[in-house]
From TrEMBL:
This is Hydroxymethylglutaryl-CoA lyase. It is an enzyme of class 4 (lyase). GO terms for molecular function: hydroxymethylglutaryl-CoA lyase activity. It comes from the Bacteria. NCBIfam families: PRK05692.1. Belongs to the HMG-CoA lyase family. It comes from Methylobacterium aerolatum. Residues 4-272 form the Pyruvate carboxyltransferase domain. Pfam families: HMGL-like.
Length: 305
């Protein structure tokens, strides 16, 4: 039994900024390999405008293919009530509703204010069946590419409204730009957990733009967070956050926790093999360190016993 949960977001966050379209069949094959490595909770795509993010235009097809992949627990990202309804109609069992704390980023991303997105979230909750799982992604919880560091009280104030709407929803604080630091991550999670003890599960979505992705994951773990987003091969980079590079690499997160003696349930060798393929995707922006380290030789980084 693993002590934490790693959510693989490469098939959504990792692919969305890639220009050359990845054939749907290849996406499904990579999903199968990720599941074979032990990654079962996977963000397979998003229901968004195909003109804004053409790489995501086949999300409904990939969602349908998940019916033949019993190990995969798919979740899809949605930015509005309309897109959430579309995802539920397509059979999505879990929705990830995203909105930004930052006014500038939310308007750049979805053309509305954070308060208007909160209203969309509340309408979506009222419109979908009760058995559809909900996760809330709070983008720019720490930092915004346009406004800079976000005051902690601003994030907490928006959470006050959102938690009230659905206390049982998993809530993910997102370092959209990768400019958060471990002290900031620890402080915000500590305050959020004290302010909202009714939240059943907290998660962290970390980017590695400045090389602090793993340090931020560790800081959140020390504050009791047990759900972490990561992207195989460190693929990623938000198209709506200029300068942001990839997510923290899944293989790096697995390596760190396993070295710490914290079980992840992931087969690192199998994961590294699929990460190598992910890093070779045309147009992809990869990152991470463990993939290269394990390629240096069989004993270069032997696991702790």
């Amino acid at each position: 039994m693993s002590a934490l949960e790693i959510v693989e977001v490469g098939p959504r966050d990792g692919y969305q900024g890639i220009g050359p379209f990845i054939p749907t069949e290849r996406k499904i094959a990579l999903l199968e390999r990720l599941a074979g490595a032990g990654l079962t909770r996977i963000e397979i795509g998003s229901f968004v405008s195909a003109s804004a993010l053409p790489q995501m235009r086949d999300t409904a097809e990939i969602l349908a293919a998940c019916a033949t992949l019993p190990a995969v627990r798919p979740q899809v990202l949605v930015p509005s009530e309309r897109r959430g309804r579309d995802a539920v109609a397509a059979g999505a069992p879990c929705l990830v509703f995203v909105l930004s704390v930052s006014e500038a980023h939310n308007r750049n991303n979805v053309r509305r204010s954070p308060e208007e997105s909160a209203e969309e979230y509340e309408r979506l909750l009222a419109a979908i069946p009760a058995d559809v799982a909900i996760r809330l992604d709070l983008a720019t919880s720490f930092d915004c590419p346009f406004e800079g560091r976000i005051p902690e009280e601003t994030t907490l104030a928006l959470l006050d409204r959102l938690v009230t709407a659905k206390p049982e929803a998993e809530i993910c604080l997102c370092d959209t730009t990768g400019r958060a630091d471990p002290a900031h991550v620890a402080s915000l999670f500590a305050q959020a957990k004290r302010a909202f003890p009714q939240v059943a599960a907290w998660a962290l979505h970390a980017h590695d733009t400045y090389g602090l992705g793993l340090a931020n994951v560790h800081a959140a773990y020390r504050e009791g967070v047990r759900v972490f987003d990561a992207s195989f091969a460190g693929l990623g980079g938000c198209p709506f956050a200029p300068g942001a590079t990839g997510n923290v690499a899944t293989e790096d997160v697995v390596w760190m926790f396993e070295r710490m003696g914290v079980a992840t349930g992931i087969d690192l060798d199998a994961l590294v093999a699929v990460a190598r393929e992910g890093a070779a995707l045309p147009g992809g922006l990869s990152g991470g360190r463990v993939r290269a380290a394990l390629s240096a030789g069989p004993n270069a980084c032997a696991p702790a016993t």
